[in-house]
Amino acid sequence: MGTLLVGLLGCVALVGCATATTLDDTRMKAPDRVVTDVLDYPFERVYASARLACLDLDLTIEKEDPVEGKIYAKSAPNLAKVAIYRTGFGESVGVYVTSLDPQRTQVEVATQKSNRLEVGYRDYRKAIAKLIRARLEGLP
After folding, report:
1. Would you say 74 and 88 are in contact if contact means Cβ atoms under 8 Å apart?
2. Could you tell me the domains of the chain?
3. CA distance 62 to 94
4. What is the DSSP string of 88-111?
5. Which residues are CB-contacts of 5 (< 8 A; sequence separation ≥ 6)?
6. CB under 8 Å to 127, separation ≥6 — which residues?
7. Residues in a beta bridge with 63
8. Which pick of 74, 116, 118, 135 has the fewest CB atoms within 10 Å?
9. pLDDT, tens digit, for every residue of 84-106?
């Protein structure tokens, strides 16, 4: 049993690692995997809201660059799904915040799943975009 658990955790570590480069590629090459929104708020407020939106969704921020406006985060693997269905290794999320002018900011949210199956995944692209807007507009 211990060997199985160690093997599963090793699989999670290897298979569940989508890099920032992979997310950047998704952003550029697969626009259907990206949600884009333009907001009438300054860069700093939007970036702060994007960061908090990731944390609100229990994503782990793996890397961020506030100057470049990039946040890379990951959802936790679901070990029950990994063991039973060989899915649920987690999802990597890239949030890209770009200032268009002093009062307008663009947000792009790209996702990269750890496997090809779409079943059982939350749509973090829409969830993050919705939470960013709600935080900025003062909605609960």
Report:
1. no
2. 2-137 (3.30.310.220)
3. 10
4. ---EEEEEEEEEEETTEEEEEEEE
5. none
6. 53, 57
7. 72
8. 116
9. 544 456 788 899 999 999 999 99
> How many residues appear in the chain?
140
Cα separation of 2 and 112, whole Å? Answer: 30
DSSP three-state, residue 130: helix
Give per-residue pLDDT as tens, 24-82. Answer: 665 566 656 688 899 999 999 999 999 999 999 999 999 999 999 999 999 877 565 55
Strand partners, 97: 107
Nearest to 22 by CA among 112, 134, 130, 133: 112
- Which DSSP string do the residues of 23-76 spell out, in sequence order? HHHHHHH-GGGEEEEEESS-HHHHHHHHHHHHHHTT-EEEEEETTTTEEEEEPP
Structure tokens at 13: 């570590």
What pTM does this model have?
0.73
Q: Which of 140, 133, 138 is nearest to 38 (CA)?
A: 133
- For the CA atoms of 68, 137, 39, 47, the dihedral, rounded to the nearest 10 degrees, stands at 0
Residue 20 makes CB contacts below 8 A (sequence gap 6+) with: 63, 70, 72, 94
- With CA atoms as reference, report the closest residue to 96 among 127, 139, 128, 121: 128
